[in-house]
Automatic annotation (TrEMBL):
Source taxon at top rank: Eukaryota
GO MF annotation terms: alpha-1,6-mannosyltransferase activity; GPI mannosyltransferase activity
Membrane topology, from the record: Multi-pass membrane protein
Transmembrane segments: 12-36, 100-121, 133-156, 176-204, 216-236, 288-313, 334-357, 377-399
Cellular compartments annotated: Endoplasmic reticulum membrane
Catalytic activity, EC: 2.4.1.-
Any GO CC annotation of this UniProt entry: mannosyltransferase complex
Organism: Thelephora terrestris
InterPro entries given in the database record: PIG-V/Gpi18 (IPR007315)
PANTHER family with a match to the protein in the record: GPI MANNOSYLTRANSFERASE 2 (PTHR12468)
Functional note: Mannosyltransferase involved in glycosylphosphatidylinositol-anchor biosynthesis.
Family membership: Belongs to the PIGV family.
The protein's name: GPI mannosyltransferase 2
Length: 402
């Protein structure tokens, strides 16, 4: 019975995921007739010969990513990790027509292929131990707070989310080397990939220590080895910048004398004004309001879960299983809390609308809201639908936020 239900769920999720993709494409098609706030895309290609689906692909960071794929020259380009530019560059070598339009269309196909709905369902089954709650969580993931960057554009989000979910699933199965490989792949797309190493450290070191109060030296060595692999994309990215601006030049960049000499943090600070509380200004209050629903959901759920999980670690107390307070969710809760705190206090806060999709805890929290507080759950679903549609219109017309 259970296997039949799971099979039915997978089939339904596949249909709904494809339907969501069609709806996104349809809305973007309708929006393609609206005037652009910024006409920069028509500088790159001819408006009269551009397919409608391609016309809306070239927005915001895609400009930078496309240029980085051609050649990384300028300092600010190190804000973009090599994953997506590398994919585009590879496609350029294997595609007869390597125009921007063709490459971005192929990027769209890759983004669709990296749909993470079914992976989230499998991950939810391992943690929540309930096919119905897992199905609900996966269905809610079809209403992301940034559908265009997760399911349409050549952004890092679809690739990072898919690789992250795969790595988390491998962690549940104690396949630590495979998890490290997936997390390393995710780290090639986003800097926050290094946070995924926490799942490996938790599974190999922290959880065994909490259970047995002892650790074997070989487990420590193994965990450090796998963690170093997860950090390797970040290290490579920093080293390539160090070579370009500190070694292969007569006048080293000012950040070269810092310890550690990080081009990524320097570029984020100089060109994007990223830093602790730098974004907390009156002018940015609209962006905080846009991000408020996601921040509120993740903050409340993670803080509440921390208190609940504290009792789970006390072995002297009776352990009553509850789907949304399973001990296996502890690393996800900590990851979500740390991640949300960083974006709230030391980043452009509205990007949580894009990044939240990579946290399965987002959809588990939303599912818990639907189950425990149906009225609030309805508000979450309504907000997700309305904001998702609005964000597609804003993207298509080249309006912020991005």
């Amino acid at each position: 019975m259970a296997n039949g239900q799971k099979k039915r769920h997978r089939k339904q999720l596949l249909i709904f995921a494809l339907s969501a993709q069609v709806l996104i494409q349809l809305l973007i098609f309708l929006c393609s007739y609206l005037p652009l706030f910024d006409s920069s895309p028509w500088v790159v290609w001819d408006k009269s010969n551009t397919w409608w689906a391609t016309a809306s692909l070239l927005r915001w960071d895609v400009f930078h990513i496309g240029l980085v794929a051609e050649e990384r020259i300028y300092e600010h380009q190190w804000a973009f990790f090599p994953g997506v530019p590398g994919f585009i560059k590879l496609l350029g070598h294997v595609t007869p027509n390597d125009s921007w339009a063709t490459l971005l269309q192929e990027g769209l196909m890759l983004a669709i292929a990296c749909d993470s709905t079914l992976v989230l369902y499998e991950l939810s089954l391992r943690h929540l131990k309930s096919p119905s709650l897992s199905f609900l969580s996966a269905m809610l993931s079809l209403l992301p707070s940034s559908p265009v960057t997760l399911r349409y554009a050549a952004y890092a989000e679809p690739f990072f989310t898919w690789a992250s979910y795969r790595g988390m699933l491998a962690c549940v199965e104690s396949r630590w080397a495979l998890a490290s490989a997936y997390f390393t792949l995710a780290g090639a797309f986003r800097s926050n990939g290094i946070l995924l190493s926490g799942f490996i450290l938790w599974g190999i070191l922290v959880e065994p220590f909490l259970n047995a109060r002892t650790l074997a030296i070989n487990r420590i060595t193994y965990a450090l080895l796998l963690t170093s692999l997860v950090f390797s994309p970040m290290v490579y990215h920093q080293y390539s910048g160090y070579q370009a601006f500190c070694q292969d030049t007569e006048v080293p960049a000012p950040w070269c004398s810092n310890f550690p000499p990080s081009i990524y943090t320097f570029v984020q600070s100089k060109y994007w004004n990223v830093g602790f509380l730098r974004y907390w200004t009156l002018q940015q209050s609209p962006n905080f309001l846009l991000a408020a629903p996601v921040i509120a959901l993740l903050s409340y759920s993670s803080i509440r879960s921390v208190y609940s999980f504290a009792s789970l670690l006390d072995k002297s107390r009776p352990q009553n299983f509850y789907h949304f307070e399973s001990q296996s969710l502890i690393p996800h809760c900590i990851h979500a809390l740390v991640f949300t705190s960083i974006l709230l206090f030391a980043a452009h806060t509205q990007i949580i609308l894009r990044f939240a999709a990579s946290l399965p805890f987002t959809y588990w929290s939303a599912a818990r809201l639907v189950v425990e507080h149906p009225q609030l759950g309805k508000w979450w679903v309504c907000w997700s639908v309305v904001w998702g549609a609005v964000s597609l219109v804003l993207w298509s017309t080249f309006l912020p936020p991005a």
